[in-house]
Amino acid sequence: MTTTIIIFLPLLGAILMLLLPDEERVVRYSALGVAALPLLLAVYIYFAFGDDLGVLALSQDITWIRSLNIGYRVGLNGLGFGMFFLSTFLTVIAVLASWDVRRNLKQYFAALFVAEVGMLGVFAAQDLILFYVFFEITLIPMYLLVGVWGDENRRPAAIKFFIYTFLGSTVMLAGFLAFGILAETYSMDALGGGGGLSRTAQLAVAAPILFGLLVKVPAVPLHSWLLDVYVSSPTSTNVLLSGVLPKLGTYGLIRVALPLLPQGVDPFLPYIAAFGVINIVYGAFVAFLQPDLKALVAFSSIGTLGFILLGAASGNAVGLNGAVFQQVAHGLYSALLFILVGVIAARTGTRRIEDLGGLAARMPWAGGLLALGALAAMGLPGLAVFISEFMSIMGAFATFPVQGVLAALGIILSAMYLLYMLGRVIFGPIGRPAYEEIGDAGPVEMASVVPLAVLLVVLGIFPALLIGLQRPAVDAVLIILGGG
Amino acid sequence: MTGQAFLALLPELISTGFLIVVLMVGAFGESNAGVAAGLSAIGTLAVFASAAVLLATGFSGSFFGGGYVVDGFALYFKLIVAGSAFFAVLAAARWSGRTGDAPEYLTLILSVVLGSTLLVSMRDLFGIFLAIELATIPSYAMVAFDRSRRESAEGGMKYLITGVVASSVLLYGIVLIYGVSGSAMLPEVATAFTGNLTPVAVIGLVLMISGFAFKVSAAPFHFWTPDAYQGAPTSAAAFLSVGPKAAFFAILLRILLEGMAEAAPTWTAVMAFLSILTMFVGNLFALRQRNVRRMLAYSSVAHSGYILAAFAALQGGGVAFAVQAVLIYTAAYAVMNMGAFLVIDLVGEETKNYNGLVRTNPGVAASMALFMAALVGIPPLSGFFGKLWIIIAGAQSGSILVYIVVGALVVNTVLSVPYYFGILRNMLLEEPTTDTARSKGTGAVRFSVYVLAVLTTLFGLLIIPLSALVGASGLA
């Protein structure tokens, strides 16, 4: 019941938003309150039930559509809890970081909270159809967040986003339905290990499901919808767009494709690992070429998603733990970078890297945190991303050595463009005389980035806080995969 | 008439009673628009309530020599017809009051209700034909009722002419079937439609299906639909596209399953062909429309194609699911399509009327956005569940042809995104202009739109009792 309450609390929040008076302070504080409640409950779950998350905890199983054997089945385990927590956390951050949204603030927050319902639901769903329903609930609010509140290029971006991901998820639904019809249930619990499907049947079912999930990530040849969407979105939408939405795809890979269709996914694993490497290397190269700071961060974000694919495909304990961990670490660092890009653009009025420069002198806090985020992105030890990227690569070495080596090379590439970016943007001579006037990040902006930085450091030093939680659940997946 | 037979006819007796009263109000009072509308609204609710009570008490049986049957299946469709008629009455009340013929127009709605509720209970082919005519003849007048617009008369004329041709084709088919089987009663027709069909039987079957294809606007017999729906008063288009249409689908299902189950290989192939053609024609033409009414008319053609996909799946292991799919889809379609049509009354029929609507009229814009998303089939809105059932039924049917139909349905779902989302885009992403509608329409229409939007949104909860109902509907 607790899980259900947390999932649907933001929906009540969304309705509340629409009923509020048009007063900006009231709206912003109420939104913060609405966003904080699920976070507090998630923290409570972490401390009260953290040790129980090896198997499904706080679960609920209600028959929804009896004749089709579809149930409202939700619950939390170590695989999903990290992202479940991060979704509530990043929603709070997104509310804080929404200073660049001025028009129709109530509706903006309402859309944000409806999207949160979908995100939380995906990470708690234990039924394939319910998983799909929550997966799609995010679609319309995200379309609106980009399309209504984005920059001047928002309309084509929003429509592209919708068409691509709707096509992907429709194909995925076809796979789910075929799976459920063959196995005669949609319960993820009952479907573990393949639900009695033959190898051929698993293959046929896995192909469309993997396609839908990889579009959502996006894996690189399927990514063409992404750049416009990321660049056109308001800052706070970016937080969810890069922090949580790609993980609907990777989580689906880890929670649905691997343990439910082990034999069907098996032949695809080398390709998924290769997709991961392509993401890492391609993301790094293309990020290098971007004149726009936000586009650079966007491609950096796509690139490091590759480590999740790589680790998940490795099929061993180190790699898979790394992948699950990277989902959270990636969300923290990409949210941090996107918000700081927003802060810098708001001050300087530009996002062109060559027009920026020497900002560290004028905005030491924002510049320092940008450096922290960039160092995290290149996998600096002591920060959370290092742990997971390292584990993913170690896992990949054991299974796919070539992909592992190439991914390690990708880290060097990413260090190059990130250091270049830091050198241009925050160090060196002041880019324009006008920048002498700008001030550092204000209290609200700091409040939105400092918690991210703190978590990056804390998880970098004490990864066991999260890995201890996810390991029993990851082991259960590995037993199904036969990797032990 | 025995007590049981009286109960069996209760919804129809109630609608007949209100029909007469409303007509009298029109005949004997000058300015009784409000009274007539109130009585009609109560009448449709009473029909709804009587059908609901019969359903809740598990009333069933066949009457009048087996020609009239009351079961869960029939009562379910009576609920859909009466429910959609209620919203049509609300939408029509003020509009028809202005023209000064409110009682006449409302009487027409009630006659369509009477015909449609009788229709879904018929088990005799000639009774079926009479009930169809009782439901459609008033609908010709409804379409042509808006005398202030030329399109209304034009649409009504086209609808009348094609409708009469369709009725004669249907009747010819029924006569041939009668000739082959020697009886018009479905159980006895079933004894003739076994083994290898005679050519006459096949011609009768095809003619009858063609007649129905006209009535449910399936391609290639759909061409009256855009003109009729564009010309018709909004309440007429909204009602005719969901209420009577659901009844036509229902009785076609009963004829095919009770009268011709053995001939399923023949008619499922016909249905598969009709379904694919109808989906593509509906969606491809809808993509080109600038007029929202016309777009929704082609959209309703496309949705007929989706429902026909369930008819194609009436074979192998898919029969039970396919029957449920038709029941769920017609209910899901009723709430979302009715809502979308009624929004036209509030906003207007040009796409440019919708520009920036979210700023001038956020409640209506949000409702329309929900209807559009539901018509695409995005979960958890109503249309998703209809499509889910059809896909599952198709997958269980075990026929390659049906798999192709299901594939076409998925392709068409994606194909339909641009035109539904064109409206969404205009409403949400564009700036308001001078063409943007400021609040039009009446409070009753606004109320209906909001109620239908809530039903569309919460369909995921409604599906729990609905799926229990359709599981026990008594057919197949």
Layout of secondary structure:
The complex is a heterodimer of chains A (484) and B (476).
Chain A: H1 2-19, H2 24-49, E1 57-65, E2 70-76, H3 78-96, H4 105-124, H5 128-137, H6 139-149, H7 154-183, H8 188-191, H9 199-216, H10 226-232, H11 235-243, H12 245-260, H13 262-265, H14 269-289, H15 293-314, H16 317-348, H17 359-362, H18 364-377, H19 384-399, H20 401-425, H21 443-461, H22 464-481
Antiparallel strand pairs in A: 1-2
Helix pairs in contact in A: 1-2, 1-4, 2-3, 2-4, 3-4, 3-11, 3-16, 3-21, 3-22, 4-5, 4-6, 5-7, 6-7, 7-9, 7-10, 9-12, 10-15, 11-16, 12-15, 12-22, 14-15, 14-20, 15-16, 15-19, 15-20, 16-18, 16-19, 16-21, 16-22, 18-20, 18-21, 19-20, 19-21
Chain B: H1 3-8, H2 10-28, H3 33-56, E1 61-63, E2 68-70, H4 72-99, H5 102-119, H6 125-143, H7 150-181, H8 186-192, H9 199-215, H10 224-231, H11 234-240, H12 243-259, H13 264-287, H14 292-312, H15 319-347, H16 357-360, H17 362-376, H18 382-397, H19 400-429, H20 443-457, H21 459-471
Antiparallel strand pairs in B: 1-2
3D architecture notes:
The complex is a heterodimer of chains A (484) and B (476). Chain A has helices spanning 2-19, 24-49, 78-96, 105-124, 128-137, 139-149, 154-183, 188-191, 199-216, 226-232, 235-243, 245-260, 262-265, 269-289, 293-314, 317-348, 359-362, 364-377, 384-399, 401-425, 443-461, 464-481, and strands at residues 57-65, 70-76. By secondary structure, chain A is mainly alpha-helical. Chain A has a domain at 268-484. A two-stranded antiparallel ribbon of chain A has the order 1-2. In chain A, a hairpin with a 4-residue loop joins strand 1 and strand 2. In chain A, helix 3 runs parallel beside helix 16, helix 3 (78-96) runs antiparallel to helix 21 and helix 6 runs antiparallel to helix 7. Chain A is globular, with a radius of gyration of 21 Å. The mean pLDDT of chain A is 90. By secondary structure, chain B is mostly helical. Chain B has a domain at 262-476. Chain B is built from 21 helices and two strands. Chain B has helices at 3-8, 10-28, 33-56, 72-99, 102-119, 125-143, 150-181, 186-192, 199-215, 224-231, 234-240, 243-259, 264-287, 292-312, 319-347, 357-360, 362-376, 382-397, 400-429, 443-457, 459-471; strands at 61-63, 68-70. Chain B has a two-stranded antiparallel sheet. In chain B, a hairpin with a 4-residue loop joins strand 1 and strand 2.
